[in-house]
């Protein structure tokens, strides 16, 4: 299985949990793994708020959101897994 594209994580605030794309900001799942759907969700709900966040601050925000999402869902995620998910950001 192809790993989730880094650009979707960093630019659209999405990651995947058990193969399903999940929004990092609102935890909503998008059933169709298509960039269009993911982009549409981001632009409709979150683009306004995060437009000004670029570069390193954006990467830090993404890491923070990923950590929050995984812990919030009670998923057993180790720091190693977290590091792997965020290392390419
Ligand atoms: Zn969202």
Strand share of the residues? 5-15%
Structural class: mainly alpha
* Major β-sheet annotation: 2 strands, antiparallel
Q: Level of helix content?
A: 40-55%
Listed once per kind, the bound small molecules are:
zinc ion
Number of strands: 2
Radius of gyration: 12 Å
> What is the count of distinct domains?
1
| Low-confidence regions | none
Question: What's the layout of helices and strands?
Answer:
Elements: H1 6-12, E1 14-17, E2 20-23, H2 35-45, H3 47-50, H4 55-72, H5 79-86
The chain binds zinc ion.
Provide an overview of this structure.
The chain has 89 residues and is mainly α. It has one domain. The chain has 5 helices and 2 strands; from the N terminus they run H-E-E-H-H-H-H. Strand 1 (14-17) and strand 2 form a beta hairpin. The longest helix is centred in the C-terminal third of the chain and has 18 residues, at 55-72. It is globular, with a radius of gyration of 12 Å. The relative contact order is 0.17. Zinc ion binds at residues 23, 25-26, 28, 41, 45-46. The site of zinc ion has 7 residues, from helix 2.
Entry keywords:
89 residues, mainly alpha, two-stranded antiparallel sheet, 2 strands, 54% helix, binds zinc ion
Question: What does this entry show, briefly?
Answer:
The chain has about 90 residues and is mainly alpha-helical. The chain is built from five helices and two strands, in the order H-E-E-H-H-H-H.
